[in-house]
UniProtKB/TrEMBL annotation:
GO terms for molecular function: cytoskeletal protein binding. Residues 29-255 form the FERM domain. One of its GO terms (biological process) is actomyosin structure organization. GO terms for cellular component: cytoskeleton. It holds the Pfam family FERM_N. SMART domains: B41. Signal peptide: none annotated. It comes from Sinocyclocheilus anshuiensis. This is FERM domain-containing protein.
Length: 255
């Protein structure tokens, strides 16, 4: 995998978007942007700085060319998540107290990841999908979950080595919200056999290829109750409005 940070995972990279004068110091706003690898960028912006300017600087931090897939997300005081509007000033959108905290995330999931041109873009999409798996947004059947988990282990650990890896090495990876022993054993089986010999970039690409076939790919599911009182999930995709029960799509209303 690509090394995208100058220091450790929680390293703070300081950016100053404008050289401040004494009169402008009072106009500065402190904010932190959390990246997909959990590192952070701390920065000062002006009160009239628009969202696009902040997004461009984060993309420049990565030297990212394919910017259109990404956005910056923030959480309001009611714990609701929103995308930062690139055409409006940051300060006018944020309802919380300073310093502001935002997250750099994939906003538009490509329907065919194989067509992504830049390896860096694929890597960032891989990091986003890894987060989606961990936080339970990418719902999937057992077999798919095991394969995705094995791809993550192969990308980050490499080939299984019995002299280096203990019998329960999969349990060191927190891959899913609920990670059973049965699932860990299946992940181990796929990792040790099917994915052996794959470099990190190939394992990451295989995860993208499998993930994009799943019904919940690119969906941010919101829990609700159906007419029987059973739990269901609502979400939006590039194809339309979707309803899920468990990990199965039960309805698609196309745009």
């Amino acid at each position: 995998a690509l090394l995208l940070c100058d220091a450790g995972p929680r390293a703070m990279k300081m950016l100053r978007f404008r050289s401040p004068s004494i009169s402008s110091l009072a106009q500065e706003v402190r904010c932190t942007v959390r990246l997909l690898d959990d590192s952070e960028i701390a920065c000062s912006i002006q009160r009239d700085t628009k969202g696009q300017f902040l997004l461009d600087h984060v993309c420049n931090h990565y030297s990212l060319l394919e910017k259109d897939y990404f956005g910056i997300r923030y959480v309001d005081p009611e714990k609701q998540r929103h995308w930062l509007d690139p055409s409006k000033p940051v300060v006018k959108q944020m309802k919380c107290q300073q310093p502001y905290t935002m997250c750099f995330r994939v906003k538009f999931y490509p329907q065919e990841p194989i067509k992504i041109k830049e390896e860096l873009t694929r890597y960032l999409l891989y990091l986003q999908l890894k987060r989606d798996v961990y936080h339970g947004r990418l719902l999937c059947p057992f077999a798919d979950a095991a394969y995705l988990g094995a791809c993550i282990v192969q990308a980050e650990l490499g080939d299984y080595d019995p002299e280096e890896h203990p019998a329960d090495y999969i349990s060191d990876f927190k891959l899913f919200p609920k990670q059973s022993l049965k699932l860990e054993r299946k992940i181990m089986e796929i990792h040790q056999n099917e994915l052996r010999g794959q470099c990190p970039a190939l394992a990451e690409l295989n995860l993208l290829q499998r993930a994009h076939t799943l019904d919940t790919y690119g969906v941010d599911p919101h829990p609700c109750k159906d007419f029987t009182g059973s739990t269901a999930f609502l979400g939006f995709t590039a194809r339309g409005f979707v309803v899920f029960q468990g990990n199965k799509r039960i309805q698609l209303l196309k745009w």
